[in-house]
Amino acid sequence: MIQADEKDIKLFLYHAKQCDPKKCTGKKMAKFGLVNLFEKIDRIPSRSILLDPMAEKALSPEDSAKKGITVLDCSWEEVERVFPQLLRMRLEHRALPYLVAANPVNFGRPFKLTSVEAFAAALYILGNKQQAEKIMSKFNWGHTFLELNHEPLEEYSEAKDSKDVLRIQSEYM
């Protein structure tokens, strides 16, 4: 078990039990005590940042993660089912900017991140680079994600706001 640092941002994962448990990065994170796993959508803490690819605003260093970061580990069908409930909850919906996956299933594909890659990207952008490295260290391909995306992650982490992140993103797409 990895010791949590007092500066660590709390990580939350809604897990719908729809993925292969052997390949599930969320389950592995929970095994190591790196994430709080929920199987009911209403357990997601209010005011946490929900990483939502459909969000109108991009995650940026101006966002506050005092209430934590939440990732949904489920199929698109499940997202469509729970989305009305998510909209009623008091969550800060934010989209991750352009990044490339390093996981073995989607290696090299933009926006096809695993749960741990999404968490690491968010942590990095919000300035918690050590926590991002810590969670990725549990995956033999984890360092590759941070290496592949080093330049954009650095630039996103230095952006002043969501608009600045979108401007930077446009340079990579």
Automatic annotation (TrEMBL):
Keywords on record: Cytoplasm, Ribosome biogenesis, rRNA processing, S-adenosyl-L-methionine, Transferase
One GO molecular-function entry: rRNA small subunit aminocarboxypropyltransferase activity
Any one Gene Ontology cellular component term annotated for this protein: cytoplasm
InterPro entries per record: RNaseL-inhib-like_metal-bd_dom, Tsr3-like, Tsr3_C
Residue ranges of every copy of the 16S/18S rRNA aminocarboxypropyltransferase Tsr3 C-terminal domain listed in the record: 49-173
Reactions it catalyzes: an N(1)-methylpseudouridine in rRNA + S-adenosyl-L-methionine = N(1)-methyl-N(3)-[(3S)-3-amino-3-carboxypropyl]pseudouridine in rRNA + S-methyl-5'-thioadenosine + H(+)
All copies of domain RNase L inhibitor RLI-like possible metal-binding, residue ranges: 10-36
Binding site for S-adenosyl-L-methionine: T25, L72, L96, S115
Keyword Metal-binding: no
One example of a Gene Ontology biological process annotation: enzyme-directed rRNA pseudouridine synthesis
Annotated compartments: Cytoplasm
Top-rank lineage group of the source organism: Archaea
Family: Belongs to the TDD superfamily. TSR3 family.
Record-linked PANTHER family: 18S RRNA AMINOCARBOXYPROPYLTRANSFERASE, RIBOSOME BIOGENESIS PROTEIN TSR3 HOMOLOG
NCBIfam families: PRK02287.1 (NF002621)
Name listed for the protein in its UniProt record: 16S rRNA aminocarboxypropyltransferase
Originating organism: Methanolobus vulcani
Taxonomic placement: Archaea, Methanobacteriati, Methanobacteriota, Stenosarchaea group, Methanomicrobia
